[in-house]
Structure to design on (680 residues):
DNA sequence: TAGGATTGTGGAAGCGTTTGCAGGCGTATG
DNA sequence: CATACGCCTGCAAACGCTTCCACAATCCTA
């Protein structure tokens, strides 16, 4: 492994000049620059990032804290974040905080603090006030996907609004008997997504003058099997069968559609189903959905933290940015067959 | 931010002793150790990893190169790797190499080399000889998931064997007319998985004395929609309908099942379907499958590289470790209705 | 043509750790 | 009682860069 010294002597300049030539900071004549570059090239020299971050105080790393990896929403965020970071010359340190509280503490108190990252992106992190405190105390740019969360800049779709949009679509089609299958309110892993989507649903119902029957909300797991089970349960009893279901996520919606099919119900003739996400599978199932783009959310979060890093004094435009969530109509929703 | 100096003076010892006390290397009386620990605690001191890696030459980072994130197999690997790394006190730097060749080169030549990682785990990476060369030239432990790949230690299931197992299961049930829906041979993203699974299928057919008709292999995308399209195409024509299909991945198999249902065929009465993976959705669809555990593959890869790092001279037991892939029988496979 | 601004380069001082070496002390060994 | 050895600690030298400062040379501009 050759050091900067070797490059310097091969190029016939000082270490200082090599550093300037390679980093592009400060004045270097273009002639020396090429000489240095060639010398570095021929020696296979690359700067030691530990040495350079020791003096500059920057690591070129961004930490990403995420509760799950293997789910479309979260995977897409990571992809977006990774892409954006790599584009700007930063590396991504991944922390999966799905597990024990012990590990969580360790990540917070130890890893993140240990001068290893320049900034932090926290994804739908149910964060305690102390933890938020800690993050802020790092003095490093932070962005949250999800939220809003007091004190740290966050971004994401407006979950209440998205849920209302979805429910309103069903109402507009003439449905009056609409159930909501959402996440379990007790096992919130994030910024109360489940509660918010339920809220949007309730708001829409109320605006339409429909009385809410608490049996109309069915909590389940946020995946296809969860939707399937809920669907089987709801649709199994013909007397208590709604004309439409608003599922809090596309995967849940798809599970419901599968359950409906199995019970011999046609969608949308016997049952309209709408979800949120515009999941890659939505198209195949003809699922009407509210689109959101987690990869773009990741990119925006990166933009926020990197700009704070590179443009001193820059701040995210708002405490919380509400991203667009638009209705995509497919074939899983239609007018109700029987009007109640 | 307080440095080691502050801790030293607060504890009334030298920097050297603080370093030894905190790192656990060298002799330190237990009394001073606690004094130092408390001092560090009260000052909120954490060592600067750049400073320490500058002198030790280790970063406590492991780089993971992976072509996709948002797919069950790959997501699970990342989860396994992350868990194992964090357990051992290492951090994970994620490189998603799905994109342009330019970016690929950049990662190889720049990021990985730049003294940023102690070891590399490459997941199903279609790697050129020069790239393998480069990786080895780093002089850092490397493990590949997938393979085998000459020169670097790899691990994974035996794809040929898994495919044969799957096909044999169908043969054993009495099927003679078995089609294979696999990946597109031209768009291999990895260690020729598609070719291998096709090969295992052919081997099983041959051993059973069944002549292979090249129309019996249908390539498609490796996901549910891909399987669905292939299924529609294959099953749409009643005259050319097999009694069983071996899908190269569970997601493809699920797509086929959905297509079959839509065409009014029952599984397994009219059509048996088997896949590979034991994907989380397999159970819901009653899908018979060959199980593999990507998360465990990730853990093993971590074990390999970390042991090389921490036990000088240690080497992975073999060039390539074949992990178990076991048949899980569910309800998507059964005896053929009509014997051909 | 003088003087300031701009450009280009080198010397040297760190950045915050780890670790080799040396020395001091206490205890076991001959 | 002298010697050896194990334990504990401090000093100071790296580790490989970046950047401040000084200085020189060149270029404008008045």
């Amino acid at each position: 492994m050759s050091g900067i010294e070797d490059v310097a002597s091969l190029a016939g300049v000082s270490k200082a000049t090599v550093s300037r030539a390679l980093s592009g900071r400060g004045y270097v004549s273009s002639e020396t620059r090429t000489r240095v570059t060639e010398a570095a090239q021929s020696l296979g020299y690359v700067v030691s990032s530990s040495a350079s971050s020791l003096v500059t105080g920057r690591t070129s790393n961004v930490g990403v804290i995420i509760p799950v990896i293997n789910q479309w929403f979260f995977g897409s965020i990571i992809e977006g974040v990774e892409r954006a970071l790599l584009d700007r010359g930063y590396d991504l340190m991944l922390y999966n905080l799905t597990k024990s509280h012990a590990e969580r503490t360790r990540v917070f108190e130890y890893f993140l603090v240990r001068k290893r990252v320049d900034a932090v992106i926290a994804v739908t992190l149910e964060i305690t006030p102390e933890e938020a405190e800690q993050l802020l105390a790092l003095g490093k740019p932070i962005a949250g996907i999800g939220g809003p969360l007091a004190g740290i800049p966050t971004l994401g779709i407006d979950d209440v609004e998205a849920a209302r949009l979805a429910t309103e679509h069903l109402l507009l089609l003439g449905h009056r008997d609409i159930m909501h299958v959402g996440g379990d309110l007790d096992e919130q892993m994030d910024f109360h997504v489940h509660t918010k989507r339920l809220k949007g649903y309730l708001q829409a119902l109320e605006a339409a003058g429909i009385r809410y029957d608490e049996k109309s909300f069915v909590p389940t797991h946020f995946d296809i099997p969860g939707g399937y089970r809920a669907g089987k349960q709801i649709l199994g009893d013909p007397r208590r069968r709604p004309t439409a279901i608003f599922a809090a996520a596309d995967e849940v919606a798809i599970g419901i559609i599968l359950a409906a099919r199995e019970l011999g119900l046609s969608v949308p003739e016997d049952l309209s189903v709408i979800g949120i996400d515009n999941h890659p599978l939505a198209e195949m199932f003809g699922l009407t959905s509210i689109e959101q783009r987690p990869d773009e959310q990741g990119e925006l979060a990166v933009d926020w933290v990197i700009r704070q890093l590179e443009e001193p004094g820059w701040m995210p435009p708002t405490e919380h940015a509400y991203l667009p969530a638009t209705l995509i109509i497919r074939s899983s929703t239609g007018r109700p067959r029987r009007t109640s």
